[in-house]
C-alpha cells in the first residue's frame, strides 16, 4: 500500500525526530554551572564531556524503552503520564469532532447558499465570537453547571476525577471557539462553491436545493474545510490548558502545572514533549483524511 | 398546432446600483416541435438570459422577471413555483452549457452525474439507471463506457466532456434541449462531430433544439429557423434559407457580410462601424441606429415594432413599416 | 535581407515523471518545425489545442528556451544572446494577446500603458510622449480623449486596439498575434482584422498569426503552416493550401468549417477519435490513428515535408 517513496519520506522524518530529541536531551544533560576554558592550548571544563554524553545516552535509551523515570517526588512517570495523556486525548478528540459537526452546520446556515443578496450581518455574527477569550467561555460554562446543580439538575459534573461524566463540560467549552472558526471556513468555502458553474448544471437537471447542497457543494467544500483544520490545532492545544485548569480536569496540562509547581525540570520537559506530540498527531491525522478524499481524484488524473 | 415553446414579450432585468437594467426587453419567438431554432446574437444581446429564463434559472442568477410569459408544452412556466419547475427541469427541458470543464462537478464520477437526472425524476431505480447511463454514454460516442463510468471529469478531453454533458441532458429524453454555445470552447474538428451527434439525437428522440450561438456558419448548416437578437430585442425572425438568401434587417446584413469566408479570398473585410452599445447606455429609438448604414430620421426617435412580413418572416425595422 | 524570422528544426520537449509506470516520459510539445517569414508578410499558424502553436510563439519571443533547434531574427541567432542584446532585440518583436480583458493593467490609464514601452526603449524624448500617444491612438482608430481613461471603460474590441497600439509603439519589425480576435464579437473581429492588415501595409510589419479559426487565417495570411501534435503537416502559400489542401488533416479541417450558406451543406470529413495527448504521440505519422486513408507505411514511418507544388509542401505518404 505504501510506495517506496512514502517509506523513504517517513523514515527520513523519523530520523530527523530522533536527531532532534537526542540534541535536546544532550542540552538538558548539561548541568548547572557548566563552563569551559582553553588553558595552554588545552580544553578544560568543569564537567568532563564524556560524562555528559553518558548521561545523555542513558536518558535517550531509557526514552526508547519508554521508561520515563521518576519525578522529583519519586513517583514513576510512566503510568501517570499515560493516563493523563489518554484523558487529554479524549478531551481533544471529542471536542474537535464536536467542533467540526457544530461548525459545519453553523457554517452552512451562515452561508448564503446561492442567494445573491448581501448578508453582511451574518458575517459579523460569525466573526465576533472568535474574539471571545476561552477563559470567559469556560467560566460561563462552569457557572452554568453550578447553577444547574444548585437546582438539583445533575447532568453536568462540576468536578471529578477524570471520569467520563466529568469530561462533558470541558469538551463542550473547548469545542465552542474552534466551532466558530470552522463555521467561518465552511461558510466561505460553501459560498465559493456555489459560485461555480456546476451548481447551475445541477439545478438545470432538476435537483432540489437540498440535493445541490449535500451532493454537489458539500462534496467539494469538505475537502477544503479539512485542509483548513491544521490552522486551529495550536489554538485548541493552548485552550486545553485553560479548560483543564478551570474544570480541574486531570489531563496532561494539569500534570504539567503540578510538576512546574514542584520545580521538577526534567519531568516538565518530558510532559511538554508529549503535549507537543499532539500537534503532530493531529496534523498527521488531518493529512491522512484529506489524502483519503483526494485519492479518488488522484487515481484518475492521468 | 401549438408550438412546443412560446416565448411572449419576455422582460428580464438585473439590479444595478440602485436601479435595474433590462437585459431582455420584450422578446417573443416560437419553437415548434422537432425543429432546431437558432438564437443568434453577440455579447449583450440577451440570448443567454433568455435561455436561462426558459429553464427557470434566471432568479438564481439574480435576474428579475419584469413581464411576459413562457408557455412550454401548454403550461405557463415563467411564474411557476420552484417545486413544480424542478419537476420539469431536466426531464422535459434540459440545457447544455458553454464550458464543459466548469459545468461538470469535479468530485463526482461521470456515470453518477449522468444518471442523476434519472434518479431525481424517478424514471429508473438505482440499478436500472446505471445500465441506462452506460447506454447513454455509448449513444453519444464515449469509448470504453464500462471502464470510464467511474472516472472523474478531469480525466476526459474537452470534446468528451461536452458529450458527457449531452448524455446528462438527454438522459430523460427531454422534449426541448437548449444548447448554449455548445461548440465555442471546442476545436474546429470536434465542432462538426458534436453538431452531428446533436442532429442524430434530435431525430432519434424527436426533440427540439434551441441553439444559442454567434456562429452564422453553424446556423446555416443546422438550424431550421433563426431568431436574430440585438441589445435585448428580437431584430429579425425567419426560416434559415430565406434569411441567408435575403436578409432583411441591416444588422443581419452586416453580420453576414463581415464573416471572413473560407471559400473566397477577400481584400478588405466588411465591418459594422462602432461597437455594441453598453447595456447601461442604450441609444434612443432603434438600438441599432448609430451603426446602421440605412438610418433614417425616425430611427433615432422611435423604436420600431416587430411586424410580420409574409407568413413566416418578422422584422423590427423602419425600412419595412 | 528579406527574411525576418527563420525557425530551423525547433523542438521543445517537457520532461514529466509518470507515476503509474514510474519512468521519465517526454511531452513533445513541438517536434521539429521549420519555417520562414519574410518582411511585410504574414504567416498563419493553425492548429488545435495541444498542437504546440502557443509554445512555438513563446520560444520565438524567448520566453521559453527550445530543447533544440535554432531561431534566427534578421539573420542573427537568438540562442546565445546575453541580457543586454536580448533587451534591445525585444524592441523588434512584440506580442498581441488573446484576452483583451487580461492584457491591460487595470490600474494604469491608457496614457501610462502606452508611455511605458516608449520610455523603456527610449523611442522618443520625454517631451514628446503626449504627442506620440495621440499619434498611436489615432493610428488604431481611437481618439485622444481616451488617453486618461482606464481599461474598464472600454469594450473588448477597443481594448484589443489599445493592445495593438502598445505593440506598435516601439516600432517593431515583427508581431506575434496569439488568437487576437477569438474573444471578440463577430462584428468587431472584422474591424480588428482590417486594422492589422492596414498597419502591416503602412508600417511594413511581419506577423505570425496564431489561430484556430480557418476563415480568419485565410483572410490575413500570405503563407500558412498547419500544425498537428507538434509537427507542421502542411506549409505553403495560403491560397494554394486552402484551395488544394493536400494533407488529410487539412482537408478535414477545411471541410468541417461551417459555411454560412444553407444550400451548401458541409459534407464534412468527420475525424474519428479524439486528439491524442502529446505524451503518447503515435508511432509513424502522428495523424494516422484518425486518418481514414491511412496505409501500412503510415503506422511505421514518419513522413517529412515534401514539395507538392510551387511554394506548397505537405508531410504525407499518400501524395
From TrEMBL, chain A:
<dbReference type="InterPro" id="IPR000515">
    <property type="entry name" value="MetI-like"/>
</dbReference>
<dbReference type="GO" id="GO:0055085">
    <property type="term" value="P:transmembrane transport"/>
</dbReference>
<feature type="transmembrane region" description="Helical">
    <location>
        <begin position="89"/>
        <end position="108"/>
    </location>
</feature>
<dbReference type="InterPro" id="IPR035906">
    <property type="entry name" value="MetI-like_sf"/>
</dbReference>
<feature type="transmembrane region" description="Helical">
    <location>
        <begin position="228"/>
        <end position="247"/>
    </location>
</feature>
<feature type="domain" description="ABC transmembrane type-1">
    <location>
        <begin position="102"/>
        <end position="295"/>
    </location>
</feature>
<keyword id="KW-1003">Cell membrane</keyword>
<feature type="transmembrane region" description="Helical">
    <location>
        <begin position="267"/>
        <end position="289"/>
    </location>
</feature>
<keyword id="KW-0813">Transport</keyword>
<dbReference type="GO" id="GO:0005886">
    <property type="term" value="C:plasma membrane"/>
</dbReference>
<keyword id="KW-0472">Membrane</keyword>
<keyword id="KW-1133">Transmembrane helix</keyword>
<protein>
    <submittedName>
        <fullName>Binding-protein-dependent transport system inner membrane component</fullName>
    </submittedName>
</protein>
<feature type="transmembrane region" description="Helical">
    <location>
        <begin position="14"/>
        <end position="34"/>
    </location>
</feature>
<dbReference type="Pfam" id="PF00528">
    <property type="entry name" value="BPD_transp_1"/>
</dbReference>
Automatic annotation (TrEMBL), chain B:
<keyword id="KW-1003">Cell membrane</keyword>
<dbReference type="GO" id="GO:0015833">
    <property type="term" value="P:peptide transport"/>
</dbReference>
<dbReference type="InterPro" id="IPR013563">
    <property type="entry name" value="Oligopep_ABC_C"/>
</dbReference>
<dbReference type="GO" id="GO:0005524">
    <property type="term" value="F:ATP binding"/>
</dbReference>
<dbReference type="Pfam" id="PF00005">
    <property type="entry name" value="ABC_tran"/>
</dbReference>
<dbReference type="InterPro" id="IPR017871">
    <property type="entry name" value="ABC_transporter-like_CS"/>
</dbReference>
<keyword id="KW-0067">ATP-binding</keyword>
<comment type="similarity">
    <text>Belongs to the ABC transporter superfamily.</text>
</comment>
<dbReference type="GO" id="GO:0005886">
    <property type="term" value="C:plasma membrane"/>
</dbReference>
<dbReference type="InterPro" id="IPR003439">
    <property type="entry name" value="ABC_transporter-like_ATP-bd"/>
</dbReference>
<keyword id="KW-0813">Transport</keyword>
<dbReference type="GO" id="GO:0016887">
    <property type="term" value="F:ATP hydrolysis activity"/>
</dbReference>
<protein>
    <submittedName>
        <fullName>Peptide/nickel transport system ATP-binding protein</fullName>
    </submittedName>
</protein>
<feature type="domain" description="ABC transporter">
    <location>
        <begin position="5"/>
        <end position="256"/>
    </location>
</feature>
<dbReference type="InterPro" id="IPR003593">
    <property type="entry name" value="AAA+_ATPase"/>
</dbReference>
TrEMBL record, chain C:
<dbReference type="GO" id="GO:0055085">
    <property type="term" value="P:transmembrane transport"/>
</dbReference>
<dbReference type="InterPro" id="IPR003439">
    <property type="entry name" value="ABC_transporter-like_ATP-bd"/>
</dbReference>
<dbReference type="InterPro" id="IPR013563">
    <property type="entry name" value="Oligopep_ABC_C"/>
</dbReference>
<comment type="similarity">
    <text>Belongs to the ABC transporter superfamily.</text>
</comment>
<keyword id="KW-0067">ATP-binding</keyword>
<dbReference type="InterPro" id="IPR050319">
    <property type="entry name" value="ABC_transp_ATP-bind"/>
</dbReference>
<protein>
    <submittedName>
        <fullName>Peptide/nickel transport system ATP-binding protein</fullName>
    </submittedName>
</protein>
<dbReference type="GO" id="GO:0005524">
    <property type="term" value="F:ATP binding"/>
</dbReference>
<dbReference type="InterPro" id="IPR017871">
    <property type="entry name" value="ABC_transporter-like_CS"/>
</dbReference>
<dbReference type="GO" id="GO:0016887">
    <property type="term" value="F:ATP hydrolysis activity"/>
</dbReference>
<dbReference type="GO" id="GO:0015833">
    <property type="term" value="P:peptide transport"/>
</dbReference>
<dbReference type="Pfam" id="PF00005">
    <property type="entry name" value="ABC_tran"/>
</dbReference>
<dbReference type="InterPro" id="IPR003593">
    <property type="entry name" value="AAA+_ATPase"/>
</dbReference>
<keyword id="KW-0813">Transport</keyword>
<dbReference type="InterPro" id="IPR027417">
    <property type="entry name" value="P-loop_NTPase"/>
</dbReference>
